[in-house]
Amino acid sequence: MQKNTPPRSTIRLTRRGKLVLVVTGAVVAGTAVAVPLLMLRSGGDARPASLVIPEGWRASQIYDAVDKTLALPAGSTKKSLAKAHLKLPKDAEGNPEGYLFPATYPVPEKATPESLLTTMVDTADKKFNGAPIAAGAQRNAMNVYQAVTVASIVQAEAASKADMGKVARVVFNRLERGMPLQMDSTLNYVLHRATPATSSADTKVDSPYNSYQRMGLPPTPIDNPGEDAMRAAISPTPGDWLYFVTVKPGDTRFTADFAEHQRNVAEFNAVRKTADAVRKTASPSG
């Protein structure tokens, strides 16, 4: 552990306070905020004409969306992976997480889970495997798969596009210093949830995705990042930051000073406590 670094058990990194807007039938994320999950064909056909995959969706969310789009039993798309023959990097070991590129995809009449997943992976290959991405990854002593993994963390952690480069820099600064990443987003991935509230018990979960306990990057991406997050991962903003917290929407604070970060976290906790009290007061059952 680095000199002047607080004990690992006391370092709290993210605690972003990022508010999550849940809309019935869709999760609002990335640049797809204004786009409905499914757009029906004209003429009343029940089968959707296109499928929108927002930035930051996990593979599990995409599988569910494909099942619904094609009116298949739940779990059908996930089961189709074995026969999809997706062109994934060797490091992925058959897991398409990170390579189901977020975009709007047409849904032809004869579309299958395999065909839709193949199109998503082929799109990711075109976006990620060009010379600029490879060169950018190499500059940061990574391969492209590792860069996609960093981009997935950036996608999950950054409260805005403007913060992405700084979040990426925090990731690299921590890796370079031999510090655990301590990203709530990696814990949320293994716990199958999305929340800024991470408990002490959560940080003790036995998983390679527990970046509070394990050093280095998680073994795979934790979602499917978009181009902005990927650009941030290969060209992080210069800075010495080691910590960040979104105290309130539009107010994300980055710092290299642990004491300052503690003050920011305390302010975030106070803001959250006030918001929780207001919600309870406004709730009919409260």
Secondary structure layout plus pairing:
Blueprint: E1 22-23, E2 26-27, E3 38-40, E4 48-52, H1 59-69, H2 76-79, H3 81-84, E5 104-106, H4 113-128, H5 131-139, H6 144-157, H7 164-176, H8 184-190, H9 227-234, E6 243-248, E7 251-255, H10 258-282
Helix pairs in contact: 5-9, 6-7, 6-9, 7-9
Low-confidence parts, pLDDT < 50 over ≥5 residues?
1-44
Domains (count): 1
Report mean pLDDT, rounded to a whole number.
85
Helix/sheet category: mainly alpha
- What is the string of helix and strand elements? EEEEHHHEHHHHHHEEH
| Alpha carbon gyration radius | 20 Å
N-C termini distance: 46 Å
Helix content: 25-40%
Strand content: 5-15%
> Can you summarize the main beta sheet?
3 strands, antiparallel
How would you write the strand order of the largest sheet?
3-4-5
